[in-house]
Design a protein that fits this description.
Layout: H1 10-15, E1 20-22, H2 25-31, E2 35-40, H3 44-53, E3 61-64, H4 74-77, E4 93-94, E5 107-108, H5 130-140, H6 147-157, E6 158-160, E7 184-186, H7 196-206, E8 223-226, E9 231-232, E10 235-236, H8 246-249, E11 254-257, E12 261-268, E13 278-285, E14 292-303, H9 306-316, E15 319-320, H10 322-328, E16 334-335, E17 347-354, H11 362-366, H12 368-381, E18 393-397, H13 401-405, E19 420-425, E20 437-444, E21 452-454, E22 465-467, H14 474-491, H15 511-516, H16 525-535, E23 537-538, E24 570-572, H17 587-605
Parallel strand pairs: 1-11, 2-3, 2-14, 3-11, 6-7, 14-24, 15-16
Antiparallel strand pairs: 4-5, 8-18, 9-10, 12-13, 13-14, 17-20, 17-23, 18-19, 19-20, 21-22
The structure holds flavin-adenine dinucleotide (FAD) and 2-acetamido-2-deoxy-beta-D-glucopyranose (12 copies).
């Protein structure tokens, strides 16, 4: 059913001129029927676009979001509960069997809620290294992507905010590289964990790769420092709470329709001067068996469904590898074999060591009385351990030259960039039934493994085939092993002597081993590798499935202006576009590319 061009609804346009968030198509029809831009996905990037494009009052924007509202989704609002699973706000994906992970199929979380993955993520705010952006500039041939040139977009995104406990943050970050006038709150931890002093002490005792870094968001992330997070005085700050906050959704030219699944993008009749197919008609539905609607963007469709949703929609729309699409019975419109390929993620491993103290956060997860008590403290006073995520400090480190020499290539973007990361937790986020722990989450941040997002079915309501192929490249396994060895070195610092129980070399291997007190003997690399493959999962930092490359590149999906190669009227703006994964948790990079995309789109249309 096509209702867009029906003049029936024009009369009511005059009656309903205030914008809002709707959950039914008929509410939208009453509001307006014509849009300049249709944004697919009200997630991290989509919310930025919606906000920035509606700064011009004459530009009409529609956002179509599959998930529901973030308002009242309390479990997503409480920072500490980000480690718990929230199926109601999740796409509930599972990967295909992962060879590099001992053949396991693992859950693959994606936010199914306004704000997208920024509404469910761990809130780590890490920009990555200057090299990451300089490499993007190099690969795309667009100097606008250099670290220096994207600083303006970090500043537009970030609103530096005091932590919940208003402690003195002098010496914990560098104010000169932060912005007070952006939209999305960024903060330091607002609850003092008992291990904080020991962590800083370790940096002093060990030096070297553990050296204290005043601010890891300076473009030079190497070393150990305080984690910054997207938290606003104790509440999660997501793309929905910030960019789609009430002062913005009140704009009469912004319309957001939630609980709505985009199924395909369709070809329109050519506009005068078109040389390429024009894909600016969006097909959507509110349930699998319900009617399919269509809406046309008079200017452009902006695809921001994330690194899983975006390739699925592109493939279902006939944009991808033509022979692959034909084999599925989909009529190819443009042959772009890179769609859904080069899928990249950061492998993540949660390791725990038993400790002698009991001032950890372990009990919060297993004592419901304590949890309830702390929720009351959080909601009444905006204080307590629930105001923070599960990590207060990070270490970014590089492999040493002799290890790197075995590989002949350095997968990092440059010498200022890390190969792996350690995140320190005052407890076990995998919720051991008893005991008290220090947790170190290890991640490979310059992985060489590449995977795919392909179709299992042409039904847009069916899940795609998701294969991050984690640890399929030997480099990634080696880097994870080194990250583990670095964790052991960290805990072997004198300051931890009384606190960490047993020999840090071995006790993390398996909870069962801890219980059985199996021989405290340093494991062989083979044992470490088996442990790694058995226990590694995803960081949910999916990128690369619609890569940005130079105009004349032999591969890639979008050009440096986000326009899909070979078509008119369609751009992709989300985590899919990174041709290489940044050495960072991916939300800050996504915010930055979305801010620049908005700038480019506005200047293209003269707004
Ligand atoms: C559990 C988890 C923890 C993470 N932790 C961190 C962290 O601590 N720090 C960090 O920096 N990064 C983290 N990340 C990664 C980061 O959140 C993402 O890289 C980023 O949010 C991706 O932004 P995006 O705009 O590409 O996609 P998303 O924010 O996921 O937005 C995509 C949106 O499109 C919608 N959508 C998809 N398909 C359709 C469709 N067919 N029709 C309509 N709507 C659709 C989705 O519902 C979603 O709202 C985490 C991610 C997850 C899932
Ligand atoms: C939309 O408008 C029609 C006709 O004016 C009205 O009957 C209907 O109730 C309206 N729907 C909503 C959701 O406001
Ligand atoms: C995931 O499962 C939960 C129920 O466990 C459900 O509420 C939610 O809608 C599901 N997500 C999707 C995208 O279907
Ligand atoms: C990218 O980097 C390579 C290697 O340093 C260099 O040869 C090339 O000229 C660079 N390309 C651009 C467009 O900057
Ligand atoms: C914060 O600490 C710094 C250094 O420790 C000190 O110089 C400064 O006066 C303190 N600020 C406040 C407001 O107490
Ligand atoms: C396109 O898909 C076909 C069939 O799946 C495959 O054989 C071919 O290698 C792919 N082409 C490219 C360029 O990846
Ligand atoms: C994947 O990325 C590499 C560069 O990292 C590129 O050479 C290759 O062509 C890409 N593959 C596809 C299918 O896009
Ligand atoms: C924590 O340890 C202290 C000192 O050993 C002890 O007095 C206290 O009862 C313990 N608290 C809990 C909750 O176990
Ligand atoms: C929680 O509180 C209830 C009632 O006050 C009490 O019976 C129960 O033992 C408590 N549970 C724990 C784990 O402390
Ligand atoms: C969280 O936001 C709510 C409004 O949604 C506000 O009332 C509350 O004070 C905030 N809590 C904290 C801890 O900042
Ligand atoms: C490099 O790392 C390896 C493995 O951890 C270690 O055996 C070696 O001693 C290190 N080399 C140098 C020069 O630090
Ligand atoms: C793919 O489709 C088959 C057949 O419908 C189904 O059994 C399987 O679970 C699907 N796989 C995934 C990953 O959804
Ligand atoms: C890895 O998993 C396999 C299969 O479950 C098990 O036999 C093996 O003991 C595990 N190894 C380690 C080190 O966890």
């Amino acid at each position: 059913m096509t209702w867009l061009n029906s003049s029936l609804f024009f009369a009511s346009l005059l009656l309903y001129c205030s914008a809002a968030i709707y959950d039914r198509v008929d509410q939208l029809r009453n509001a307006t029927t014509k849009f300049d831009f249709v944004i697919i996905g009200g997630g991290t990037a989509g919310s930025v676009l919606a906000n920035r494009l509606t700064e011009s009052a004459s530009v009409l924007v529609l956002v179509l979001e599959a998930g529901g509202s973030n308002i009242g989704a309390i479990p997503t609002q409480i920072p500490f509960f980000c480690t718990l699973s929230h199926p109601q706000y999740d796409w509930n994906y599972t990967t295909t069997p992962q060879e590099g992970l001992s053949g396991r199929e693992i859950p693959y979380t994606r936010g199914f809620i306004l704000g997208g993955s920024s509404s469910v993520n761990g809130m780590f705010y890490t920009r990555g290294s200057a090299d990451d952006y300089d490499r993007l500039a190099n690969v795309t041939g667009d100097p606008g992507w250099s670290w220096e040139n994207v600083q303006i977009y970090f500043r537009r995104n970030e609103k530096w905010t005091p932590p919940a406990d208003h402690h003195n943050t002098t010496g914990q970050y560098d104010p000169s590289i932060h912005s007070l006038d952006g939209i999305n709150s960024v903060s330091l931890a607002g609850f003092p964990q008992s291990i904080n002093e020991n962590i800083i002490r370790t940096a002093i005792e060990l030096g070297g790769i553990f050296q204290y870094n005043l601010d890891m968001n300076s473009g030079k992330p190497l070393g150990l420092g305080w984690l910054q997070t997207t938290i606003d005085g104790g509440n999660r700050s997501s793309a929905a709470t910030s960019y789609l906050g009430p002062e913005f959704t009140r704009r009469p030219n912004l319309h957001v329709l939630i609980d709505t699944r985009v199924t395909r993008i369709l070809q329109n009749r050519p506009s005068p001067g078109d040389r390429l197919p024009r894909l600016n008609v969006v097909e959507f539905a509110q349930n699998p068996d319900g009617p399919r609607y269509q809406v046309t963007a008079s200017r452009e469709v902006l695809l921001s469904a994330g690194a899983i949703g975006t390739p699925q929609i592109l493939l279902n729309s006939g944009i991808g590898n033509s022979s692959y699409l034909s084999s599925l019975g989909i009529t190819p419109i443009v042959n772009l074999p890179s769609v859904g390929q080069n899928f990249t993620d950061h492998p993540r491993l949660v390791n725990n060591w038993p400790v002698s103290g009991n001032r950890t956060f372990d009990d919060i997860y297993r004592n419901s009385n304590l949890s309830t008590f702390l929720q009351n403290v959080w909601s009444q006073d905006g204080k307590g351990p629930l105001v923070d995520t599960f990590v207060s400090h990070l270490l970014f480190a590089r492999l040493n030259a002799s290890i790197l020499g075995q590989f002949g290539e350095d997968p990092a973007a440059g010498v200022r960039s890390a190969h792996y990361e350690l995140g320190f937790s005052n407890g076990d986020i995998s919720v051991a039934p008893t005991g008290h722990f220090i947790g170190i989450t290890t991640r490979v941040v310059s992985p060489l493994s590449r995977g795919t997002v392909l179709l299992n079915s042409t039904n847009p309501f069916a899940a795609p085939l998701i294969s991050p192929n984690l640890l399929s490249n030997e480099f990634d396994l080696l880097a994870m092993r080194e990250a583990l060895k670095t964790s052991v070195k960290f805990l072997a610092a004198p300051v931890w002597k009384e606190y960490v129980l047993g020999n840090p070399d071995t006790v993390f291997l398996q909870p069962e081993m801890i219980a059985a007190k199996l021989g405290f003997k340093a494991p062989q690399d083979e044992q470490l590798d088996a442990y790694i493959r058995n226990n590694t999962g995803t960081s949910a930092h999916a990128v690369g499935t619609a890569a940005m490359t130079g105009q004349n590149s032999s591969f890639g999906v979008v050009n440096s202006d986000f326009k899909v190669k070979g078509v008119e009227g369609l751009r992709v703006v989300d985590a899919s576009i990174f041709p290489f994964i940044p050495s960072a948790h991916t939300q800050a990079p996504v915010y930055v590319i979305a801010e620049r995309a908005a700038d480019m789109i506005k200047s293209f249309w003269g707004d």
